[in-house]
Structure formats: structure tokens, C-alpha cells
């Protein structure tokens, strides 16, 4: 923590001010009451340098950021603020030891991660002998409010009836739950909980620190001779505003604004940069199916629209970072684990490609994340110059926090508090049971794949034994063959005639036909063994990897559950007799609509996931056994006329597998296991396998040079 504090003291965050038509808010929640001059043309600037040549794996987690920022200081004293709530910190965590509501603060750095700010006590309301003035430490972002934002505008008159409650009711419409300004209430919950860090507590207690986004269809009643640039700017702002407004329908369930689409991550290639060295670049293709209207107008079905861009792992990290800041109220899938060794091996690159594809598809399937502006940019930006310019901007924006919940709209009385309380208890029980069951399923599925490898060995051994029988060539003794020396001597005493037939008589056509048909069966069993091996290594590995998508749902939705339960507690406080606070209750309902919609999203996705997984497994098994049946039927036909009769027309040719009888292929290669899930308590691969791979990387293998080879 000390390194983060030192880093926070040394630099200030960028203060980004976007210009536009901003409505003055004079409600009780005056943290959003601020004005911006539209004519002086001055803005606070920040210079951000983005290193596109980062390593394929993001920097260490202890580093401040993926991107290095060179930010102009706003002032040496920081931004003035005032404490809203009492706070008792822990000195061992570099927190402010004691802050009371009303204390004057200086915010040195607004965001140091996880909802915390670096603050300095400028003036205490307590006795000056306390010695707390001038103390520097960490303070939760939701425990203070900036005072520099309160500016006076000369000549501006605010109607007495204007309030945040009224303006939001007008913007939302009759069917939207109204949100008002709260009465002051203290904070007593765990400051590390997601209820606090996501901004839900700040929203419940005092509303949003920003105005809600104006409807995108607002018209301009001013001068009709506005320039094209102004019109374009309003169009862009309207599109962005629409992307940040989220709607919950009856259910509660998220409203789908955009149709679903899928993303392919494919064609990985190794690149080299002079700054960061080698890295892996992936091709990311978004596939948008043609609408039904397009297909009705044309005779042929319209081809799907495809957008292809190039992305590396650090780009996915940047996307995930931005999404977690912009969408604090939803459960985002975790990124794949980092890898520092062997990250250019074929097995790892393919595993990473699959993990990234599963990650991005889980993001785009979410009804809210699907139309996030940063996601659209990630999937559509083809210009490296534009990427280096725009992505650092997204990452420099402050977290949405309470403003996310301020822009969630839902019908009034969309849920019942008692139902919401019972639903979350059932949800927790269910997700824990699902997670436990899936972990067991993943382990069993690994054993099923190993059984397929053992079946491959058995089929191959059966093939060798049959071939040894009809050729009189001994099968090399091995622990897996079950043949001892005496049995081997008996096996080699058989004889064949000059035509290669399994018979002591020369010119025996019956034995020639039998021998060639049995040889065909032996070769078929080898192909069956290959099918078993390939099925376990490729088809079943994909299903095994896909099981990670449904693993650990309780951990993934832990933040949603925490926010839901904490909001219910606040809701019950706000409706207590004698302490009623309708405005706070209304904001609690907004958060509960969000969390309930997330639970419904999990329900929908769980059904889709397990349907897809089960169908994928059954289709793979059907295709696998159909291939085996086709080969077995072909071998069986060799014993029926006319094929059987035609076998006597020429001598028997040696089988391609006869040479393997001395060295049978009965020791298969290591069976690759899925990369562990981020939330796995222990890796899925045995420790011995990891050690073996590490030693192989150092000492080399028949197919791969060793690391030391570069120095020898």
C-alpha cells in the first residue's frame, strides 16, 4: 500500500471536462451543481502516452497502470473537498485515522483504485489540539464531496420549484421510478464491500454526483443557423448518451437494445517489437447476422456483416479495465490468467485464443455491456493511430460509480422487497450448488478423457495382437502387452505360405482371403485407436475448456449479491415508521432492479450455457461413434461377397503396422488439460505435469530446442 500512496502523492489524476449544454442543478444534492463556460475555450489538459508496444502479458499487478500518464498538476494543494461522513481508518493501511463529517479536505488524487482517494485533512471541526490537521492518507471516494464545484453564476435565477426530484421525474417519464435528494444518513457498512466501491451506497445515500443523461431525442430550439459541426457534435453526444442509459423491464430484466452477435478470436501470430520484444497478435472478427427485413427483400439470404481487427492480450486487459469502471453494477466475466513462461508454445497460444474468445463472447452477450461505447471501439477500431489516441482517453475517465445507477430506468413498483430478499437467498444457494457440481463435473470429464486415451491404447494393442497372430511376427514384450517370454515363443511358432497367407499349405485361397480380411480388421482397429486419441485431445478438450464458462457462479456474482443485500438493509431503514425516506427508498429500488436484472441475466445465460454444453458433448459423441461405425462397417464388408472373393486374386501385401510390432505405440503423449479458471483454488493440471513441462522447456525435447541451447 505504501508504494501506491507514494505514487499517488507524486501525480494528480487528469481532470477531464467535456463541454456541452449542461443544466444547472440546485437541488439538495448540490455536488452536481457546477457551471462550465462554453465561450472561453479553456480546458484542463492532460497528456497521456500510450505504449502500444507493451508485452503480450500485462505488467505486474503491483504497477499503477497499464499505461503511463504524464499529467499536468491542477494545483500543489489538491482540490478542496468536505467530508460527508465520519470515518475511522486504520494507520497500518495508510488510511486517515479520524475524519468527521464537515472536515475540510484536500483531495490529492481522486482515484487510487478500488474506490479510494488520497486525501489530506485541511481543517478539522474538532479541537485543534487533536493533531489531525495536515494528515495525509486514504479515504473512500464516497465519503467526501468536492467544494470547488460550487460556483456562483452572475445573473442566474433558479425557480423556487426547481429540484433534482422534479427534473428527473420530467426526464424519466411517468413510468420511471422518481429519484430525489436524500436525507443525511451515516455509513456503517464494510467500506471494502462492492456496495461501497461500486458507487451503489453513494447513490442510495445522496444520489448521483452527476446529472442524469438527457434524452438523446432532445431538439434544439435555439438559432436555426447552427453550423454543421454543432449538429454533428449534438448527434455524437446523443449517441453516447443513449449508450449510457440502461432500462430494466418487468421481471426485472434488462431491456435488449441491440441484437446479439458473436465474436471470433482466431489466427494468432507472433510479432516482435523493438520496445517490448515478442508478443502474440490475435485476429478478432465480429459477425453480425443479417436482419430478417434484409432477407425478405432479397431472394438470397444476406451474408453476415464481418468486422475484423487485430488485438493483443494487453488490449483485452485495457478493455476489461474500462468496462469494470464504466459498468460497476453488472457482473463481468474475468479475464484469463496471466502467463509468464511458455506463452509462445502452440498449446498455450491455442488455449489463450480459446479463453479470449470465450471471454469476449460472454461480454457481448450481456444485454448492457453489448452496447458499451468502449466495447464498440474495441471491436471496430482498425486504425492504430486512433487506438493509441482513444483508448487512453477511456482509461483516464473517472469510474461511473453512482452515475451508473442514476442512468438506470425502470417501471415504478417493479419489484417487491420481500420477494427480493427471498430471491437473493435462493440465488446464493443455487449458485453455490452449481459451482460445486460443475467442479465435480470438470474433474469427472478429465477422467473420461483419460479413459478415451486408455481405450485408444487397448484398441491399438488389440490391432497389434491380431496382426502378430496372422503374420507370425512376435509382438515385443512390454508391461502393457501382458505377454511373457514363454507366451512369446508360442506366438512366433506360426507359419505362413509364400502368398503371405496364414496357412501351412501353399496356394490356399481360403486362408489367403481370411488373412487379408483379418489384416484389414487390424488396420481398421488402428484407425479406431486414432479416433479415440484425437477425440480426447481435441473435441473433448474444447468441451472441457467450455466448462470454465459455468464454473464459480457464486464468486462471479458475489459483488451483485453483496450490493443486493446491503441495499435491502438500507431500504428497510428508509421505510421504518417515523424514519420514512421515500426518496432513498426509490433509489434503493433502482439498485435492486439492477441486481435482480443481473440475477435474471445469469438465469438466462445458465440455460443457454448448459443447453449448448450438453448439445456440444452429444454432437461430438455422435460424430465420434459414427466415424467408428463407418470404419467397422467397412471392415465387416471385407468378409462378405463380392469383396471377400476378390481377396484371393493377389498375394497379401505387408501391413504398414507390421514394422511397429517390435516397438508398439502403447505410450501415448501427455494429455493436455484445460488452463485453470481464474477462480480455481488449485490448478486443474497435476503438479507433476507442470514440473515435467518446466524441465522439458529447460532441457529440451525431441521436438523442441532447450532454452540453454541458445547459450551453448
From TrEMBL:
PROSITE patterns registered for this protein in UniProt: PX, SH3
Domain of life according to the entry: Eukaryota
Pfam family, one: PX
GO molecular-function terms, A-Z: phosphatidylinositol binding
Start and end residues of each SH3 domain: 76-149
Biased composition (Low complexity): 40-49
UniProt-listed SUPFAM superfamilies: PX domain
GO cellular component: cytoplasmic vesicle; plasma membrane
Taxonomic lineage from the root: Eukaryota, Fungi, Dikarya, Basidiomycota, Agaricomycotina
GO biological process: one example: endosomal transport
Keywords noted in UniProt: SH3 domain
Protein name: Sorting nexin lst-4
Stretch list, region Disordered: 1-20, 40-63, 159-191, 211-232
Domain PX, residue spans: 260-385
Amino acid at each position: 500500500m505504501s508504494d501506491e500512496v507514494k505514487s499517488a502523492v507524486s501525480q494528480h489524476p487528469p481532470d477531464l471536462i467535456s463541454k456541452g449544454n449542461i443544466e444547472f442543478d440546485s437541488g439538495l444534492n448540490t455536488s452536481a451543481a457546477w457551471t462550465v463556460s462554453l465561450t472561453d475555450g479553456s480546458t484542463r489538459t492532460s497528456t497521456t502516452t500510450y505504449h502500444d508496444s507493451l508485452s503480450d502479458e500485462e505488467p505486474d499487478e503491483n504497477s499503477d497502470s497499464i499505461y503511463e500518464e504524464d499529467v499536468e498538476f491542477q494545483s500543489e494543494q489538491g482540490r478542496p473537498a468536505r467530508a460527508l461522513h465520519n470515518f475511522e481508518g486504520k494507520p497500518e493501511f495508510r488510511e486517515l485515522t479520524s475524519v468527521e463529517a464537515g472536515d475540510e479536505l484536500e483531495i490529492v488524487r481522486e482515484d487510487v483504485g478500488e474506490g479510494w482517494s488520497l486525501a489530506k485533512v485541511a481543517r478539522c471541526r474538532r479541537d485543534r489540539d487533536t493533531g489531525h490537521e495536515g494528515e495525509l492518507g486514504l479515504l473512500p471516494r464516497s465519503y467526501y464531496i468536492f467544494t470547488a464545484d460550487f460556483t456562483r453564476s452572475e445573473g442566474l435565477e433558479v425557480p423556487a420549484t426547481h429540484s433534482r426530484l422534479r427534473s428527473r421525474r420530467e426526464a424519466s417519464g411517468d413510468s420511471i421510478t422518481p429519484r430525489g435528494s436524500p436525507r443525511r444518513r451515516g455509513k456503517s457498512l464494510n467500506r471494502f464491500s462492492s456496495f461501497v466501491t461500486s458507487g451503489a451506497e453513494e447513490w442510495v445515500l445522496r444520489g448521483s454526483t452527476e446529472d442524469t443523461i438527457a434524452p438523446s431525442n432532445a431538439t434544439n430550439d435555439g438559432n436555426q443557423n447552427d453550423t454543421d459541426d454543432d449538429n454533428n457534435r449534438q448527434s455524437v453526444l446523443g449517441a453516447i448518451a443513449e449508450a449510457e442509459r440502461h432500462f430494466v423491464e418487468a421481471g426485472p430484466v434488462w431491456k435488449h437494445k441491440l441484437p446479439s452477435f458473436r465474436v471470433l478470436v482466431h489466427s494468432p501470430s507472433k510479432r516482435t517489437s523493438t520496445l517490448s520484444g515478442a508478443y502474440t497478435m490475435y485476429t478478432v472478427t465480429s459477425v453480425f447476422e443479417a436482419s430478417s427485413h434484409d432477407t425478405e427483400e432479397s431472394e438470397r439470404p444476406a451474408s453476415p456483416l464481418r468486422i475484423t481487427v487485430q488485438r493483443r492480450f494487453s488490449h483485452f486487459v485495457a478493455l476489461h479495465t474500462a468496462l469494470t469502471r464504466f459498468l460497476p453494477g453488472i457482473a463481468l466475466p474475468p479475464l484469463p490468467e496471466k502467463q509468464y513462461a511458455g506463452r509462445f508454445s502452440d498449446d498455450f497460444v491455442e488455449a489463450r485464443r480459446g479463453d479470449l474468445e470465450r471471454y469476449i463472447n460472454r461480454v457481448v452477450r450481456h444485454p448492457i455491456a453489448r452496447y458499451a461505447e468502449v466495447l464498440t471501439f474495441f471491436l471496430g477500431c482498425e486504425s492504430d493511430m486512433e487506438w493509441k489516441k482513444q483508448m487512453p482517453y477511456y482509461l483516464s475517465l473517472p469510474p461511473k460509480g453512482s452515475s451508473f445507477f442514476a442512468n438506470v430506468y425502470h417501471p415504478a413498483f417493479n419489484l417487491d422487497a420481500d420477494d427480493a430478499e427471498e430471491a437473493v437467498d435462493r440465488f446464493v444457494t443455487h449458485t453455490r450448488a452449481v459451482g460445486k457440481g460443475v467442479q465435480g463435473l470438470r474433474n469427472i470429464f478429465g477422467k473420461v478423457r483419460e479413459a478415451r486415451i486408455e481405450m485408444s491404447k487397448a484398441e491399438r494393442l488389440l490391432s497389434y495382437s491380431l496382426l502378430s497372430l496372422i503374420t507370425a511376427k512376435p509382438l515385443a514384450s512390454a508391461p502393457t502387452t501382458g505377454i511373457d517370454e514363454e507366451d512369446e515363443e508360442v506366438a512366433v511358432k506360426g507359419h505362413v505360405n509364400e502368398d503371405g497367407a496364414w496357412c501351412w499349405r501353399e496356394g490356399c485361397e481360403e486362408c489367403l482371403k481370411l488373412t487379408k480380411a483379418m489384416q484389414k480388421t487390424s488396420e481398421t482397429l488402428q484407425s479406431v485407436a486414432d479416433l479415440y486419441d484425437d477425440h480426447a485431445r481435441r473435441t473433448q478438450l474444447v468441451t472441457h475448456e467450455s466448462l470454465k464458462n459455468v464454473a464459480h457462479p457464486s464468486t462471479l456474482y458475489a459483488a451483485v449479491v453483496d450490493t443486493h443485500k446491503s441495499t435491502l438493509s438500507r431500504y428497510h431503514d428508509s421505510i421504518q415508521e417515523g424514519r420514512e425516506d421515500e426518496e432513498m427508498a426509490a433509489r434503493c429500488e433502482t439498485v435492486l432492479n439492477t441486481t435482480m436484472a443481473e440475477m435474471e441475466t445469469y438465469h438466462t445465460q445458465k440455460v443457454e450455457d448448459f443447453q449448448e454444453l450438453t448439445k456440444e458433448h452429444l454432437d461430438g459423441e455422435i460424430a465420434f461413434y459414427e466415424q467408428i461405425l463407418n470404419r467397422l462397417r467397412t471392415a465387416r464388408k471385407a468378409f462378405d461377397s463380392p469383396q471377400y472373393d476378390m481377396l484371393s486374386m493377389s498375394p497379401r501385401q505387408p501391413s504398414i503396422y507390421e514394422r511397429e510390432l517390435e516397438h508398439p505405440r502403447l505410450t501415448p503423449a501427455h494429455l493436455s488439460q484445460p488452463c485453470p479458471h481464474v477462480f480455481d483454488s488449485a490448478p486443474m493440471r497435476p503438479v507433476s505435469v507442470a514440473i515435467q513441462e518446466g524441465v522439458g522447456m529447460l532441457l529440451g525435447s525431441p521436438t523442441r530446442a532447450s532454452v540453454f541451447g541458445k547459450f551453448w
